[in-house]
Design a protein that fits this description.
mainly alpha; Integrase_catalytic; DNA-binding; Integrase_recombinase_N; Integrase; 3 domains; hpI Integrase, Chain A; 15 helices
Length: 356
Amino acid sequence: MSYQEHIDRYLVPHLGEAVLEELTPARVQRAFEGIAGHITPRGQRVAAATVQRVRATLRAALNTAVREWLLGSNPANGLRLAGGQSARPMVWTEQAVADWRNSGVRPAVAVWTVEQTRAFLDHVSGDRLYALFHLVVMTGLRRGEVVGLRWEDVDLERGTVRVVRQLQAHRGAGLVEVAPKSAASRRTLMVDHTTVGVLRRHRWRQQQEAQEHGRVWDRGGYVFTAVGGGVLAPERLSRLFRKLNTASGLPPVRLHDLRHGAATLALAAGVDLKVVQAMLGHASIVLTADTYASVLPQVAREAAERTASLVLRDAGRVRRQVWGRAGRRGSVLVPPGSHHGPTTGTARLSHAQMRL
């Protein structure tokens, strides 16, 4: 969610009528109690992490007022808020899907498995914006970033996509181009050859659309557009995604959850955490690690198997060597029977064991 959305959705309704000098700590506290009780369009209370981010937006604005001598102190500094730890992505495992179907309760942040992601892409393969969903699934682009892409940012020969802007809705100004969320968000992504092929086909189809519409086509140079070539509004894209998600029969996720899914799938494929951080445009690897500490179940399972393989491989040979050395030195390094890993060949007693 952007700073502008924080202002429009939460701060203006609760503090918009207040004169700057009237913003006492008590007034701000009451406002945030109201914000915390706000019900989202999905019928849920605003997440504590969202309230924390809205507070950060207000505090930054009021710090500017303090620096310009419009306020003596920042009334948002002493706010008492509930803990705002962001919800970690939960994978739609078979059990999670069954629980959701029985109770109707869905997690705040959820991601599809590999099979579910593949099923969604198959479902939308005929949609005119298939390339957009494919790109988000593979790269984790934010909503504003993907609708803000221009063809000048895409190099199909080198297989790169540059993130240099995002589109946001601003009250009274419509859709405007703004800088990426942070310095780390300004990045260049490498895309695989399949995705390059998808983008090539999308460009060809877009050119066919432009010819059909003729002068009506809006030639703004955006990679993904509304029908007729107009700018694709982020919220309109979210509504389309919800409609496609429902029609697919898959468990519900948000459009932004495709970003989380891209990260978890990359980790499942063995991509280094530092690379995932760069792909997502996170300023800190700590944020990446904390958000995706709990990933696809098979990732944890494969990690356990790899660890066991590393520790237990050639265990029989190692044990014989250890016991042989122990016999020569008159000391026992590993107690008999303490290790039950796999052995190779027929088990035989060492000289040290025979003496015991």
